[in-house]
Amino acid sequence: MYKKTQLIIYLIIFYAFNINAGISIYDLKCEYMDNPIGLDEKTPRFSWKLKSDEDGKYQKAYQIKVELIVLNGNSNREIVWNSGTINSSTIPAIYSGPELNSFSRYHWRVRVLDNRDQWSEWSENSCFVTGMMSKNDWKGSWISDGEGLSGNSKDEKRAPYFRKEFKVEKPIRSARVYIAEAGLYELSINGKRVGDHILDPMFTRFDHRNLYVSYDISNLIQAGDNAVGVLLGNGWYNHQSIAVWYFDRAPWRDRPAFCLDLLITYVDGSVETIVTGEDWKTSFGPLVFNSIYTGEHYDARLDNKGWSTPGYNDSDWKRTIIRSSPSKKIKAQILHPIRYTDELRPVEVKKIDDYTWFYNFGRNISGTTRLKVKGSEGTILHLKHGEVLTEFGRIDMSNIDGHYRSVDDTDPFQTDIYILKGSDDFEEFTPKFNYKGFQYVEVTSSTPLELSSDNLIAYFIHSDVPTIGNIRTSSDIVNKMWNASNNSYLTNLLGYPTDCPHREKNGWTGDAHIAIEVGLYNFDAITIYEKWIADHWDEQQPNGVLPAIIPSSGWGYHWANGLDWTSSLTIIPWNLHLFYGDIRLLKRGYDNIKRYIDHVNKKHPTGLTDWGLGDWVPVKSRTPVEFSSSIYYYVDTNILSKTAKLLGETDDYKKYSALASKIKCAINSKYLNYDTGVYGSGLQTEQSMALFWDIVPSDLKEKVTNILVKRVISDNKHIDVGLLGSKTILNALSENGYPQLAWEVASQENYPSWGWWIKNGATTFYENWSVEKEKTNSMNHIMFGEINAWFYKGLGGIFPDEENPGFKSFILKPNFVEGLNQFEATHDSPYGQIVSGWKRKGRNITYNVSVPSNSKAILYLNDIYTVLNFKSLVNNPLIKIEETSDNKYQIELQSGIYLFEIKKDKI
C-alpha cells in the first residue's frame, strides 16, 4: 500500500496480571463535592472512579446503599435506599430513594459488577449532610443593624458587628450552623473564625436568590458560656463605589442582613436551636469602610478585641432589627469555595522615599495583602495595588481605573487604608471583604516608616477548584503560556467567571463561554458553572433576553448581549454534558433555552441576525457582526435540538433541527462563495468560524480550508482575529488537516501572538494583542485563553466523545508537530486520568497513552501514518484496528497503558 509517509509502529502493552485481579473504588463524590454539608438537593448525584489491577476491566452494573445516621442517644444506621443492581456503566448515578430529611447525616457506598460478572468489594463510606430541605426549616429571622447616621442605612460606611451569647449545659454530639446573608460575612464562635472560606456567600441576583453556607462547628462549642459573632460586609449587595455598571443603584441594594440557625444536638438526642432575632446585639468597630470594588479602611484605634467571645461587655451595643428576606429563594451554596490558595513573598522591595515603599510580588494575581507593621498611634497607611508601572517605577492605574467614577478621594481605587492604634506589638491587617488584581503594591505612610520584605505578603485568592489537567512540553514559552492562561482563568474565578479582577470584576458572558474548555480541561469547575447558569435563569427576562454581564444590576440588557455573548446559556451546559456526562443543567434549563431561541426566531425570522457585539478586539480585520452572531444563533439552536433529542422531546427536536438547518442555509446563501470557498472577505475569523462551528457544506470543507490556509500564510503565519476568532482559528486548522500550520501560528513569539505577551514578561493573558500600556486596557483577562484548551486538543488530541459523553469513551487525534520535541497532556476525567504524550528523538517518536478503567478510547492516525505488523496487533484482544476509506487508521483502546514507537522513514 502506497503512503506519503511510512512509519514503523511497535505496540507495547504493560499488563499487571494477578490471580485475585479486581476493581477498587475511589474518589467518591456527592454533587461533585467531597462529603458536602448543608445539601438541599432532593435528588443528589453520586460519582466514583475505578482502579483495576487488570487492563480492560469496566463496570457493567452498580449498586448503591444510602444510610441515615439516626442520632437518638445512640448512633444507629437505617438504610433508606438500596438501589439494587443498576445495569449501567456510566456515572453520575442519581439518588431515587425516599425524601431526604433536613439536618441529617447520610452515609453512602457503592459496589460495581465488572465485565467478568464479579462484584467488587463495597467502597468505603462517603457522606453528605442535608441542610434546609424546605424553606420552612428556617427558624431564625433576617436581622440587620438597620440605620445609619445619614438617615439612609445603605449609605452608612461602617461595617456592622453582631453578637449573641448562649449556654451549653449538656454534653454535645454535634453542632452545625447555617447562615444566609445578603452581602458578605465573617462568622466566629468563641473568638475563633469558622471555616476557611472567604468572600462568602457567592454573588447572586440578591432579589431573586440568596445562598446559605453550612459548617460543622462541633469542635468550637464549649461547655458553659458561648458566643457567636458575625461581621457583615457590603459585597455586591450594598455596593458603595460608583462605576459605569450602576451596582450602586441596584434594585436590591440595602444595608447587609443575615439569618442564622445554629443547631446543637446533644448526646441524649435532644436538639437546641440558636437563632437570629431581636435579642442579638449590634455595634460598629474598626472596619469603617469596605467595598468589593475598591478597598477597605480599617481604624485600629477603634479595636473591639474579644467582641465575639463570651463575657464581652456589650452594654453599649444596641438591639438588632428584624427585616424581610431579600428574596423568596434561599438555596444552599454547594460549590468549591473561595480560599487563600497561595502565599507570595515579595521578589523586590525598595524605598521610594521616606514615606513610600514599593513591593513587587513577581506575578499578576487576584488577591489581597497582609500588612504587619509597628508605628505611632494615628499613623495612616495607604496600600495601593496595581499591575502596571510608569517609566519611573511607580504604580500606574490608568489601564484599569477608566470605568471608576469617584466623586472624591475618600474611596481610592484598589487601595486599602489602615490607621495604626500605636501598639508596642506588631499590628496586622488583611482585608476581609475585598480583593484586587495586582502584581505591585505601594505602601505610603503619613509618617516615615522603615519597612522590609517581612512587612507585606500577598495572598492569591480564587474559587478553590481542584486541578485536573496538566501540560508539559519541551518548549519553555508554551509552558509559560499554559501557566499564564491558567493564572488568568483562576484570577477570574470567584464564585462566577469574571473578565478581570480589578477594573470590572464582571461576569461577562462571552468571555466565559469562549474559555469554557480552558476551565474544563484544567479544573474540576462544574460546581461554579452550575451556580452561574442558575444566575442566568434568575436574570433572564420573560421573553428570553439575557444581559451581557451576569449577575447584573440591570445594566447589559441594552448592549453587548446578543447571540455571540449570551450563548453562554447554551454552550456552557452543553460542554458540562460533554465533559461530565451530566445532562441535569440542560434538562433544568431547557425551557430557558427555548425561550431564548424562540425570541430570536421571532425577531429575526430570516435566519440571520446582527444582534451581537462581534469579533471583539481584533488585531486589524473586522468580521461582520451579522456573520458571527448568525453562526452563534445556529450553534445555540443546534444545541437545543440535540438537547431535545436527549430528553425525548421529539416534536421539539424536529422543530429546532429544521430551524438550525434554515439558519445554516441563510448564512451560506449570503456569505459563502460556492465557487471559491470564500466566506465574506475570507478573513481568518470568517473562514475558521465557518469550519469550526460546522457551517461549511461537507463537499466544500477542503476548499474553505485552503482559503483559510492561504490567508494565514499571507498574514505571515500570525493571528488576525478578535475574541470570537481566537476560539476557532487554531482548532479549524488542526482539525482540518493543518496541525503543523496551527502549531506555527500558536508558537509565534512576535506581535501579534500569545507568545509576544510572554516574551514581554506576562504572567497572565492580556485584553489586547498589543503590549503597549496605552493600548492594553487590562493585563489580566482570560478572553483570549482558548490556546490553552487547544494544547489538549490540537497537540494531545484529547476530545470528549459526544456519543459517549463524560469521557466514558474519548477520542485521540494526536499531532506530532515539527518544532516541538516533547509533549504530554493529562486530564483527570470523571472516569480517571487520561494521558496523551509523545517524545521525539531524531526521526523516532514515542507515543504513550493511558486509558482509565471503565473507559475506552478511539485513536485516529491520519493518512501520513502507516501501521505495520498489522496481524500481531489484531491478535491482541484489547485492540481493534480498522482501516477507513480515506486511508486513516481507527484503533479502539480499552483501559490500560499503551506505548507506540513510531519511526518516520521519509516525508
Instruction: Kindly report the average pLDDT value.
Output: 93
Total beta strand runs:
44
Reported for the largest beta sheet, the result is: 10 strands, mixed
**What share of the residues does DSSP label as strand, in percent?**
25-35%
Name of the CATH architecture of the largest domain:
Alpha/alpha barrel
Helical fraction: 10-25%
Tell me briefly what this model is.
The protein is an alpha+beta fold. It folds into four domains: 1-132 and 806-907, Immunoglobulin-like (Sandwich); 138-335, Galactose-binding domain-like (Jelly Rolls, Sandwich); 339-463, Galactose-binding domain-like (Jelly Rolls); 469-795, Glycosyltransferase, CATH 1.50.10.10. Helix 11 (684-692) crosses helix 13 (723-734) and helix 13 (723-734) runs parallel beside helix 16.
Walk me through this protein's architecture.
This protein is of the alpha+beta class. The protein folds into four domains: 1-132 and 806-907, Immunoglobulin-like (Sandwich); 138-335, Jelly Rolls (Sandwich); 339-463, Jelly Rolls; 469-795, Glycosyltransferase. The protein contains 17 helices and 44 strands.
